[in-house]
């Protein structure tokens, strides 16, 4: 089970003192937060991609490469990489390059993006969102697995004799997650390829995602990648903690009330009841998230949103201390209890290399057997 | 939201005949005051529709005791006003609002009644329409009705509500019912009285509701579009 954080990289005014970080401060804060994640023992840091204010993360691989240079164990990912408006050729190259620089500590989450104008800004049409995601990913998948590619599609110029460089590290492409909030098409796509499926799980009631993940698990089995409970599932989450529950509520409320997305809407109490947001003591967060496997089945990755809505860096770092030191160690134990042996762990570069070697082994054995047979003749 | 079942037990024309399918009627009332004339109109229309559903038994029985089995769900938007606004802001419905949306998606008929404010449906009414899944109303028989201070805004039903439901691919009955304040004390000397207009519209709606099988359809929320391929 992998635990980590994901960020949307918003530059938001702190509603308690009316100060706003500069873009430079926010970008540097992202790096500090990632380093802190490794320091407190988290496994994953994932960064969003946006092309509009108030977000600063337009080029995640640049940022992740810089973070890779300053960390040793942290797995670097995205939340999400826009498979619709980016050129799949450039995604193939950028992430293969990042994979080499980070010695394999890289995976990637595909998303369509929900900001309307980004599509036309990049020469696309939002009504083609799903077909773009399907075609672009099919090409990306091929570029990472086939050395020389001839290709023709609807949404980019054809390729003749193209080789994406560098080739993926050890010829094993980064693991791919597909993120979706409501589209069964994307769950179907993830299942078809045997890729992971990530439910952001933070803004909507869990019942919605339970259905979507249940569907993905069924289709994963249908396509022959394993049993439904072996499908690779990731979940988002959101928490704010203080030793005393009431202190957490009092401190977080102004950030909640003014937050992008849900601010000025439901009360903190309603929202924490209806979504996985948990504001309270570390034990409350442990209890809430330990129960997730009951709803979604044993899963592979849990990411928390910890640094949004104008929370000061100092507070975010304190939150990461609590998350890494008090919450995640207990959750690791809870999730390990009664976890069936055939349910896989979260994929890593090492596990993917091992899986490839294992898959190739029977072939090698057969060749040796054949050779032995020849000799004995 | 309140549920009431009208029509009593299922009845047929004789031994061995299949029970009549239960019909689900949803009433949306967007009145803001309590009590409201919008709700009064909604209730009158609902009663008339239930009566008309009981009038004719297509299986050959006679009289209202061969009546249809109808469940009525009344959605008072005033009670959902906060939930509707929250849904607009967050993108998801509270459990209470979701219950109302589900009832609507699975209805055999809808009676939609709004006050006319500033030449059109009320803002709350439109906000509710805006949180409905636009794919959830195709084929839904709808009776549109409105209340207003004077008769002068009665055409709002035809230029505002009718196209709204047409866009959602619902089936709007030809007669729309508008009740101005004065209608509640008018005998109908200069045209059909409010009771007659309600009866005519209710008859039109009942005919469509009787033939609807929306409430017994099984919906697959993960149905992939025709021709979709994941690769």
The largest chain-to-chain contact, stated as pair and per-chain residue counts, equals: A-B, 28 and 17 residues
- Rounded Rg of chain B: 18 Å
CATH fold field value of chain B:
Rossmann fold
Count the domains of chain A: 2
Put simply, the count of helices of chain A is 13
Q: In the CATH hierarchy, what is the superfamily of chain B?
A: Flavodoxin domain
What's the level 1 CATH class of chain B?
Alpha Beta
The rounded Rg of chain A comes to 21 Å
**Overall pLDDT of chain A:** 94
Mean pLDDT of chain B: 87
- The run of helices and strands of chain A is EHEHEEHEHHEEEHEHEHHEHHEHH
Q: What is the third-level CATH name, the topology of the largest domain in chain A? A: TIM Barrel
Counting DSSP E segments of at least 2 residues, the number of strands of chain A comes to 12
CATH top level label of the largest domain in chain A: Alpha Beta
Description:
The complex is a heterodimer of chains A (377) and B (231). Chain A has helices at residues 23-39, 60-69, 88-101, 118-121, 129-145, 184-193, 206-222, 245-257, 268-274, 282-290, 292-296, 313-336, 349-376; strands at 2-7, 44-47, 75-78, 81-82, 107-111, 149-151, 159-162, 175-179, 196-199, 233-241, 278-280, 301-305. Chain A is built from 13 helices and twelve strands. In chain A, strands 1, 2, 3, 4, 5, 8, 9, 10, 11 and 12 form a ten-stranded parallel β-sheet that branches. Chain A is an alpha/beta fold and 377 residues long. In chain A, α1 (23-39) packs parallel to α12 and α6 packs parallel to α7 (206-222). Chain A has two domains: 2-346, Luciferase-like domain (TIM Barrel), CATH 3.20.20.30; 352-377. The longest helix of chain A is centred in the C-terminal third of the chain and has 28 residues, at 349-376. By secondary structure, chain B is α/β, with parallel strands linked by helices. Chain B has one domain: Flavodoxin domain (Rossmann fold, 3-Layer(aba) Sandwich), CATH 3.40.50.360. In chain B, 34% of the residues lie in helices and 19% in strands. Chain B is built from six helices and eight strands; from the N terminus they run ββαβααββαβαββα. In chain B, strands 1, 2, 3, 4, 5, 6, 7 and 8 form an eight-stranded mixed β-sheet that branches. In chain B, a hairpin with a 2-residue loop joins β4 (109-117) and β5 (120-121). In chain B, α2 packs across α4. The termini of chain B are far apart. Mean pLDDT of chain B is 87; it is low at 5-18 and 60-66. Chains A and B meet through α5, α6, α7 and α9 of A and α2 of B.
């Amino acid at each position: 089970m992998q635990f980590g954080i994901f960020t949307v990289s918003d530059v938001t005014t702190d509603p308690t003192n009316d100060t706003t970080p500069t873009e430079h401060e926010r970008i540097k804060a992202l790096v500090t937060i990632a380093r802190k994640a490794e320091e407190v023992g988290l496994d994953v840091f994932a960064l969003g991609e946006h092309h509009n204010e108030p977000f600063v993360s337009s080029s995640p691989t640049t940022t992740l490469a810089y973070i890779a240079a300053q960390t040793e164990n942290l797995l670097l990912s995205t939340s999400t990489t826009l498979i619709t408006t980016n050129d799949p050729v450039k995604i193939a190259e950028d992430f293969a390059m990042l994979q080499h620089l980070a010695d394999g500590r890289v995976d990637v989450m595909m998303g369509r993006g929900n900001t309307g104008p980004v599509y036309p800004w990049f020469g696309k049409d939002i009504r083609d969102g799903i077909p773009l995601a399907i075609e672009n990913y099919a090409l990306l998948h091929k570029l990472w697995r086939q050395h020389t590619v001839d290709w023709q599609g609807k949404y980019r110029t054809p390729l003749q004799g193209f080789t994406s460089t560098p080739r993926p590290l050890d010829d094993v492409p980064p693991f791919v997650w597909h993120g979706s909030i409501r589209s069964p098409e994307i769950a179907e796509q993830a299942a078809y390829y045997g890729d992971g499926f990530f439910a952001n799980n933070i803004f909507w009631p869990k019942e919605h995602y339970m259905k979507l993940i249940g569907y993905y698990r069924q289709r994963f089995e249908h396509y022959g990648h394993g049993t439904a409970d072996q499908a690779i599932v990731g979940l988002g989450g959101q928490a704010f903690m203080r030793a005393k529950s009431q202190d957490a509520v009092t401190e977080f409320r102004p950030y909640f009330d003014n937050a992008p997305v849900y601010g000025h809407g439901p009360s903190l109490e309603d929202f924490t009841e209806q979504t996985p947001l948990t504001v309270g003591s570390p034990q409350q967060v442990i209890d809430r998230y330990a129960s997730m496997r009951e709803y979604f089945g044993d899963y592979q990755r849990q990411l928390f949103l910890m640094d949004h809505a104008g929370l000061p860096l100092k507070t975010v770092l304190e939150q990461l201390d609590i998350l890494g030191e008090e919450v995640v160690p207990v959750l690791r134990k809870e999730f390990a209890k009664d976890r069936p042996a055939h349910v896989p762990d979260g994929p890593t570069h090492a596990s993917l290399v091992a899986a490839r070697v294992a898959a190739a082994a029977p072939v090698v054995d057969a060749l040796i057997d054949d050779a032995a047979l020849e000799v004995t003749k | 939201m309140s549920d009431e079942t009208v029509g009593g037990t299922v009845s047929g024309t004789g031994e061995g005949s299949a029970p009549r399918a239960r019909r689900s009627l949803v009433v949306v009332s967007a009145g803001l005051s309590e009590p409201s004339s919008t709700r009064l109109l909604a209730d009158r229309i609902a009663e008339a529709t239930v009566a008309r559903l009981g009038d004719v038994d297509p299986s050959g029985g006679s009289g209202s005791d061969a009546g249809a089995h109808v469940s009525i769900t009344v959605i008072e938007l005033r009670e959902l006003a906060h939930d509707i606004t929250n849904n607009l802001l967050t993108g998801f419905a509270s459990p209470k609002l979701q219950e109302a949306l589900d009832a609507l998606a699975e209805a055999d008929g809808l009676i939609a009644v709004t006050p006319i404010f500033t030449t059109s449906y009320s803002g709350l009414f439109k906000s509710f329409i805006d949180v409905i899944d636009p794919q959830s109303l195709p084929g839904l028989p709808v009776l549109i009705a409105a209340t207003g201070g004077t008769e002068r805004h009665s055409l709002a039903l035809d230029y505002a509500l009718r196209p709204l439901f047409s866009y959602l691919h619902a089936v709007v009955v030809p007669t729309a019912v508008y009740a101005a304040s004065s209608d509640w004390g008018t005998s109908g000397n200069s045209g059909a009285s409010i009771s007659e207009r309600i009866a005519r519209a209710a008859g039109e709606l009942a005919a469509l509701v009787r033939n609807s099988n929306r409430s017994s359809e099984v919906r697959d929320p993960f149905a992939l579009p025709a021709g979709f391929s994941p690769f």
